[in-house]
């Protein structure tokens, strides 16, 4: 029933299904349209579920379906229950208003993998008996009212992956045994009332990625045993321990966790100095040590934290000067040093932190003037230097942007409000004045305040000179560095090991548990496990010859696109994996990235991609409402994107797409094109590929010579690209019959009769006076691409070049250019 033909466009008709069911049920059963016949639930499981229902308080009547003698429990009749072979594997009842408690009988559900009952009003303790469940992977009980302590027995669940019991009323200490599971990657115990120390065992876990312990009552010092011994790799990326009562020093061994992105230790009783080793954490984006009792100076090694976005050291006892050169922190947007004992000048280089938008230096003992370079910080939205020892005039833009509460408490600072005027000569001439000269000029006695102001000005002058010298030095440095900046830095690889010589060509492998499946991750933004994937809620997006595509929503709310490949069409496992690893390495802004694949125990194969919220180009163009128009720049941007993606495939990866169609081009939020399905033919058997080529022909994207040739080549791809550009120009689908002609023939016939205007999409014609030439030139180029003779067609590289020439300034549409001066192509008859 699920595999019936669905409308290929996202959001028209969809079915909510569970990927899991697809893995379990043999596909032939579904394919032949037979109904899923339920399996009767195992007796022990049935009794356990009854007991669980008895102890829950079902305020809103969600569990009314748990009524019959168990026949329905495993056939989808009982809400929130999932089974395999009559055994319950998942209880999913989040946001159901459920009260009462979770029965200890849950320990009888021997096959249970996942319990998700977060965001209810559950009270009582977390059942000890969860420790009996050898298959348990996920425990999601956050946002409830659970009390008691965390059962140490959870340490007996060998493959536990996620334990999130945050935001409850749990007490007691953290059981060290939680680190027993070698798969645990998310441990969230935050927002409880836990006491005692952070167990040493957690610092040695080689699987943890998220460790969230904030807002508890933890005490003792943080163990200095992170990263264990030797140079093993550790995966921890997020460590949040703020709002506890932790004391002692900041452990220097944190610097061994080279994937760390966030450290949050604020609002504790931490003392000692900041270990300079932390400067080696090249992926660190957020460091919060605020509101502790940390002393010593600002480590100069922090200038190496090149990924840093937010640095909060406020509310400590830090002193000394802040180092002059930390202008390498190009991504720093929040810098909070308030309420410390910093002294000396504010470094001029602060003006080079170009991304900064919040800067708080208040309540320190900074002296000297405010660097004029601060005026260069265009994105500054919050600024505070109040209560320091600063002097001289406030740079002009700063004083306009921020009111006096950003500057008060600096006796010698002037010019930030009507009541604090600077001495009358404008600040620009001030440096020329010395206090002795001033009286002659001004023929009046100077008040102490005036003298102070002038002295401040003089100081500023000296600073300006210094500033110039420094800037010259810096510019030379920058010039040297800019050479390196060409390459883009990939955002932290999520399952961590990707860049560290892990198995399968830079991929991360997870064996998919009881069912014997295997999940292999490539570089990408999401963390998930095989179970997360299989238990995700999925919505059918469309079907192709290769298989069915789903939009899957993971437990953490992230969305991915999953393609389930049709069975018996793929190559054998070893060959498949080699090819998939190669495809998983391909990264280009116009190519849909393969993030992971899953191999089921029976040979089922899932490919996981980024989810593209705006669906396919086909639906974008042809399944929109009459009110929605698509502008010429948007269409052109798509055309160029497709061409660039295709060029990368041809030139850099040596891959022929072979099936480029508007349904295979997906659009992200900004309607940038991402080509999908490239390289997939390499995963498929020859027979399956022949089939695809036949279909592509039927859809009108197939080059004519493919009826004779067996194999696609770069020129047949260029033909498909040409059809897509024609589709963008005409708004017509190549699938629609047009007097027995295909789209290229139809366009050619009209152009031949010199009615060229007739081919363009009507809505484009509205702007014709401005874009006429562009349309015409693009049309010529597209017709060139669909030339019946392959050798006459251009290479993709030339297509890109010409598109860029036609539309050099992509986003300045009809804004005045000379293209508007010429008349549009006219309709001659
Ligand atoms: C059980 O509940 C389902 C759904 O609420 C309902 O359709 C069915 O009739 C009920 N069966 C019995 C025996 O009460
Ligand atoms: C904790 O849960 C309550 C409701 O149970 C919710 O209102 C609150 O926002 C949650 N707190 C956090 C930090 O998530
Ligand atoms: C941990 O739980 C808290 C409260 O429920 C939530 O705000 C936070 O995002 C969670 N963090 C992780 C890493 O799961
Ligand atoms: C779990 O950890 C505890 C202490 O860390 C240890 O004593 C126990 O033997 C471990 N249990 C298993 C099943 O590995
Ligand atoms: C922490 O403990 C103190 C006293 O021991 C108590 O007053 C406070 O409420 C506790 N905080 C939390 C979040 O449990
Ligand atoms: C650590 O890594 C280096 C090179 O990466 C290697 O030479 C050394 O033997 C390793 N040490 C240990 C203890 O594994
Ligand atoms: C920054 O890193 C470089 C290279 O890793 C190192 O040579 C330099 O000493 C570091 N700078 C500081 C101030 O630690
Ligand atoms: C800075 O931020 C940009 C945009 O988020 C990112 O692409 C880049 O990799 C970051 N740079 C570093 C050094 O982390
Ligand atoms: C300033 O902010 C805007 C919008 O947030 C951003 O696009 C721009 O890149 C920022 N500029 C710098 C220099 O970071
Ligand atoms: C502030 O710094 C000045 C030197 O610039 C020093 O004389 C003064 O004692 C410092 N004040 C405090 C409160 O540390
Ligand atoms: C600046 O900081 C001071 C003290 O830290 C505070 O009282 C004042 O409200 C802040 N002003 C702004 C604009 O944030
Ligand atoms: C720092 O900023 C100034 C302008 O304020 C600029 O001229 C200089 O090149 C920048 N230096 C570096 C190293 O970025």
Automatic annotation (TrEMBL):
Residues annotated as domain Protein kinase: 535-810
The species this protein was found in: Turnera subulata
Keyword Plastid: no
Membrane topology: Single-pass membrane protein
Signal peptide: 1-33
Gene symbol of the encoding locus: IMK3_2
GO molecular function list: ATP binding; protein kinase activity
SUPFAM superfamilies: L domain-like, Protein kinase-like (PK-like)
Name the record gives this protein: Leucine-rich repeat receptor-like protein kinase imk3
Lineage per the UniProt record: Eukaryota, Viridiplantae, Streptophyta, Embryophyta, Tracheophyta
Presence of the UniProt keyword rRNA processing in the record: no
Subcellular location(s) of the protein: Membrane
Pfam families: LRR_1 (PF00560), LRR_8 (PF13855), LRRNT_2 (PF08263), PK_Tyr_Ser-Thr (PF07714)
Annotated stretches, region: Disordered: 810-829
């Amino acid at each position: 029933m699920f595999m019936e033909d669905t409308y290929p466009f996202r959001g028209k008709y969809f079915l909510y299904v569970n990927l899991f069911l697809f893995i379990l049920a043999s596909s032939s059963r579904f394919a032949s349209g037979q109904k899923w016949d339920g399996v009767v639930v195992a007796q022990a499981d049935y009794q356990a579920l009854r007991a669980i229902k008895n102890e829950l308080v079902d305020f809103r009547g969600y569990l009314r379906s748990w009524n019959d003698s168990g026949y329905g429990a495993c056939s989808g009749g009982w809400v929130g229950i999932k089974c395999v072979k009559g055994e319950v594997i998942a209880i999913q009842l989040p946001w159901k208003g459920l009260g009462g408690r979770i029965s200890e009988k849950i320990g009888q559900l021997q096959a249970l993998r996942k319990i998700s009952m977060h965001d209810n009003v559950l009270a009582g303790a977390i059942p000890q008996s969860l420790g009996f469940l050898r298959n348990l992977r996920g425990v999601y009980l956050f946002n409830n009212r659970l009390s008691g302590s965390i059962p140490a027995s959870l340490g007996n669940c060998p493959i536990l992956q996620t334990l999130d019991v945050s935001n409850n009323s749990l007490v007691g200490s953290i059981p060290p045994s939680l680190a027993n599971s070698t798969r645990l990657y998310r441990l969230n115990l935050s927002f409880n009332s836990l006491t005692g120390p952070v167990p040493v065992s957690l610092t040695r876990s080689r699987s943890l990625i998220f460790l969230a312990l904030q807002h508890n009552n933890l005490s003792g010092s943080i163990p200095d045993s992170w990263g264990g011994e030797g140079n093993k790799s550790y995966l921890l990326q997020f460590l949040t321990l703020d709002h506890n009562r932790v004391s002692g020093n900041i452990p220097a061994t944190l610097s061994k966790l080279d994937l760390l992105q966030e450290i949050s230790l604020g609002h504790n009783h931490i003392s000692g100095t900041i270990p300079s080793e932390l400067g080696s954490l090249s992926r660190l984006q957020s460091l919060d040590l605020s509101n502790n009792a940390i002393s010593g100076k600002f480590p100069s090694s922090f200038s190496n934290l090149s990924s840093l976005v937010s640095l909060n050291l406020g509310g400590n006892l830090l002193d000394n000067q802040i180092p002059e050169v930390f202008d390498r922190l190009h991504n720093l947007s929040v810098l909070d040093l308030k309420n410390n004992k910093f002294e000396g000048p504010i470094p001029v280089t602060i003006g080079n932190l170009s991304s900064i938008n919040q800067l708080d230096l208040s309540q320190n003992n900074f002296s000297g003037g405010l660097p004029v370079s601060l005026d260069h910080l265009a994105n500054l939205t919050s600024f505070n230097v109040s209560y320091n020892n600063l002097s001289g005039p406030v740079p002009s833009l700063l004083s306009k942007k921020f009111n006096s509460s950003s500057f008060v408490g600096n006796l010698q600072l002037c010019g930030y409000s009507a009541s604090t005027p600077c001495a009358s000569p404008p600040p620009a001439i001030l440096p020329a004045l010395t206090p002795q000269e001033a009286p002659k000029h001004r023929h009046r006695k100077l008040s102490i305040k005036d003298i102070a102001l002038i002295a401040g000005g003089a100081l500023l002058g000296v600073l300006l000179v210094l500033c110039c010298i420094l800037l010259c030095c810096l510019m030379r440095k920058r010039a040297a560095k800019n050479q390196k900046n060409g390459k883009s830095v990939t955002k932290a690889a999520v399952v961590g090991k990707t860049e560290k010589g892990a198995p399968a060509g830079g991929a991360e492998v997870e064996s998919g548990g009881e069912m014997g499946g295997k999940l292999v991750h490539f570089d990408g933004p999401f963390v998930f496990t095989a179970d997360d994937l299989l238990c995700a809620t999925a919505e059918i997006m469309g079907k192709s010859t290769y298989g069915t595509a789903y939009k899957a929503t993971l437990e953490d709310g992230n969305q991915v696109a999953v393609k389930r490949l049709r069975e018996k069409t793929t190559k054998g496992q070893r060959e498949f994996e080699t090819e998939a690893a190669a495809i998983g390495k391909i990264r280009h802004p116009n190519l849909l990235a393969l993030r992971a694949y899953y191999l089921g125990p029976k040979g089922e194969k899932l490919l996981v991609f980024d989810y593209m919220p705006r669906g396919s180009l086909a639906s974008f163009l042809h399944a929109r409402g009459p009110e929605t128009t698509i502008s010429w720049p948007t269409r052109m941007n798509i055309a160029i994107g497709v061409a660039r993606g295709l060029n990368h495939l041809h030139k850099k990866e040596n891959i022929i797409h072979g099936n480029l169609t508007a349904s295979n081009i997906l659009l992200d939020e900004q309607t940038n094109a991402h080509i999908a399905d490239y390289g997939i033919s390499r995963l498929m058997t020859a027979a399956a590929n022949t089939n695809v080529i036949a279909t592509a022909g039927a859809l009108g994207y197939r080059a004519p010579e493919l009826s004779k040739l067996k194999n696609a080549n770069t020129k047949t791809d260029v033909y498909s690209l040409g059809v897509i550009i024609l589709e963008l120009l005409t708004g017509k689908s190549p699938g629609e019959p047009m007097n027995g002609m295909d789209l290229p023939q139809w366009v050619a016939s009209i152009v031949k009769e010199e009615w060229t205007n007739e081919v363009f999409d009507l809505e484009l014609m509205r702007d014709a006076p401005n874009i006429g030439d562009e349309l015409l030139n693009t049309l010529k180029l597209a017709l060139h691409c669909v030339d019946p003779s392959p050798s006459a067609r251009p290479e993709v590289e030339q297509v890109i070049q010409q598109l860029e020439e036609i539309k050099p300034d992509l986003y300045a549409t009809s804004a005045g250019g000379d293209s508007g001066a010429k008349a549009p192509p006219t309709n001659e008859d």
